[in-house]
Amino acid sequence: QVQLVESGGGLVQAGASLRLSCAASGRTLTMGWFRQAPGKQREFVAFIRWMDGSTYYADDSVKGRFTVSGDNARRTVYLQMNNLKPEDTAVYYCAGTTRTTTTRPSEVDYWGQGTQVTVDS
What we know:
Elements: E1 4-7, E2 10-13, E3 18-24, E4 30-36, E5 43-49, E6 55-57, E7 66-71, E8 76-81, E9 90-97, E10 110-111, E11 115-120
Parallel strand pairs: 2-11
Antiparallel strand pairs: 1-3, 3-8, 4-5, 4-9, 5-6, 7-8, 9-10, 9-11
């Protein structure tokens, strides 16, 4: 069983930046991030695939503002979030999978405990 430990959430003003980190205790093929806002379903944000460093983003709502990166040797993934907006407020979950890629919560094998990101307007 792989454990994921996240850090880096917090309360910020709109336009600010935050960086989330997540360290895995074991090997995965892909690591990344989902988020869940109050009353909404958990949604895909971004992933990095370790074998070739490919990255995937949800859509235009985060692309260009969020950057996923990682250190495979340290089994650590990061999410740099710039120009944060109130609609980015959510619990952000680190995710790991033995698949080469996934955007579906049902296909995630390992979850972190979640870290709250709150963006105040």
